[in-house]
Amino acid sequence: MHACLSESISQHFKNRINGITVEFLNLEIILQLYLLNLNSGFLTINFQSDSNPSFYFLGGENSRIIWKNENFQSCFWNLFGALLMDFEGFLDIFEIKNWMISDFQFLRNLLKQRNNKLQVYNFSVTNFDKDGLKSILQFLKIQKIKSDQKIDFANFMQSAEKSRKILENPLIMKNVLEDLDFFEIECLRKVSQNVRSCIEIVKPDPKIRKISLKFQDSNFIPMDICSKFLENLSIFYQKTWDGYSVNRTSFDGPCDLSKIFLSDFEQILKNQRVPIELLDIQGSNEQFMDIVLGNCSSKFFGRVQVQNLSLQRLTDCQVFQILQFIDSKFLETITIMDAVKSFNLDDFSKLDQWKMAKQLTIEGFSISTPIQNLDIFNFSKMDIKVSDISMEDIIHLKAKFLESATVIKLKINFERFTNSENIQNFLGRPYSQKPHNSIWFIRIPDSQKCLHLNYVISRFFIFTRFNASCIPEDAFPDQLEYQI
Predict the structure, then answer these.
(1) Which CA distances in Å does 282 have to 216, 220, 223, 320, 344?
(2) Which one, 91, 103, 268, 459, has the greatest CB density within 10 A?
(3) Of 62, 64, 65, 43, the residue nearest 54 (C-alpha)
């Protein structure tokens, strides 16, 4: 019974854990989970000894589960093991209180079954068995440790000194760094000045695949990173009354949060050797976003290697600035969503990043640039939205599509279509006509291709390039009242 409950709780909370506290009492174990995306910030589970098993949840400001069982210790270890076994992130806090050597032995057996070491930023131990603590340290990657007892780490220090000497060899360091993610590398930098210098010589690749940034509050910047080794790592920059914090680590003194974030961001990208698959930037706070972009170093210009760029809730000027930071040689797709204010594309065609990208998507808003002024036919695939479209605009798009050797597909969504009643005068009788859409096939001169034009009434047009050999001969209109 308790094994099923453990699995259910673990599946629900495992990927949201940011910290853990475990306290052993005589007839009770208190497990506190610090959770992301939970209003109260944490969930407390009380495992209590009782011959009458029961399990109930108490909601409210501080969520709590009361789990009563005669074998309450087994209930705890089953759940704790399920939480830790496949946990791939890192813990900001791991705190243990009142642990005996037998408790450490249980934990050691759990940690030995993991495929990698458990990453911990702040490790805190209170009232514990010293030998028990030493028995688990080899299974943890700890950045900071706090203890209420003096611990003799003589053997560990001697081993650590030998390890430092080994790590100061660039050839060995290069092999070591191959299996570390960027967070582990940052921890390794803090071992010693010589180790840090050796890392700088090797220049390890953090192997980042995706980065998501949100600039919605000038006092809080969240960054989510996905790498080859970590499915998701969340880093939070937050202003406090006397300074700032990064996740749960506090720093004193005045600060410009955007500059602190940008300094770390530059360090993270410094040695990235392959393009990041996706960079997702979300705004909404226009003033703060302008400050962040204003603080960006000139070192960023044309240097950020990204394949897919997604930008949300930004102004046209902010999107223009961000594009300048991207290395045009690697950029493949540009997605712009839910822009704020009127959005004009007039100057974008001047950018190499715009010219070199292959795919453009604009959704959630209408661009203000007139259709016949759009310079977008360098893209192979496009999905855009405009407020108004006319028959003259359709003829213009048709002509540009026929001229271009690059464009494969263009979808243009619209809010209003003027003089739509004349569409057959310009395009001829459609090959297929249904109540809600019409389809035309149009030959492309001196080409084995043809244009497939799909009009969904009152919603959008789709222009697509097809092989003419696949199209029935009677699909092409013979005579139009209007000729281009």
Answers:
(1) 7, 13, 11, 15, 19
(2) 91
(3) 65
Which residue bears the tokens 């009563």?
A: 68
321-341: pLDDT as tens digits: 999 999 999 999 999 999 988
Which residue type occupies 224? D
Residue 13 has which token pair?
A: 């909370």
Length, in residues, of the chain: 484
CB burial of 232-269 (b: ≥16 within 10 Å; e: otherwise) equals ebbbbbbbeeeebebbeeeeeeeeebbebbbebbeebb
Residue 156: helix, strand or coil by DSSP? helix
Q: Which residue has the higher pLDDT, 233 or 153?
A: 233
The two tokens of residue 123 are 């490790």
Residue 348's alpha-carbon distances to 126, 316, 370, in angstroms, are 59, 9, 14
Identify the pLDDT of residue 392.
92
Q: What end-to-end distance do the CA atoms of the chain give, in Å?
A: 76
DSSP letter at 124 equals E
Kindly state the tokens that stand for 319.
């999107």
Look up residue 157 and give its amino acid.
M
Edge to edge, what strands does the sheet with 42-49 contain?
Answer: 54-58, 63-69, 42-49, 28-35, 17-24, 90-99, 118-128, 140-147
Stretch 292-317: mean pLDDT, rounded?
Answer: 90
Nearby residues of 194 by Cβ (< 8 Å), 6 or more positions away = 164, 168
| SS3 state of residue 169 | coil
- More reliable by pLDDT, 81 or 159: 81
Tokens at 129, concatenated: 């068995």
- Alpha-carbon distance of 461 to 455, in angstroms, equals 5
Query: 208, 275 in Cβ contact below 8 A?
Result: no
Compute the average pLDDT of residues 186-202. Answer: 70
Give the pLDDT band of residue 160 (cuts 50, 70, 90). Answer: low
| Torsion sign across C-alpha atoms 108, 112, 114, 118 | positive
Q: What is the dihedral of CA 426, 430, 431, 435, to 10 degrees?
A: 160
The predicted model gives 360-383 an average pLDDT of 94
Residue 363: count of CB within 10 angstroms of its CB: 14
The structure tokens listed for 316 are 């046209």
| Confidence check: pLDDT of 481 > 50 | no
- d(Cα 351, Cα 345) in Å, to the nearest integer? 11
- Output the six-digit token pair for 242: 């006397």
**What is the average pLDDT value for the chain, to the nearest integer?**
84
Q: How far apart are CA 324 and CA 301, in angstroms?
A: 6
The rounded Cα 247 to chain-centroid distance in angstroms is: 17
Smallest CA-to-CA distance from 280 within 257, 326, 311 is with 311
Q: Are 328 and 322 in contact (CB under 8 A)?
A: no
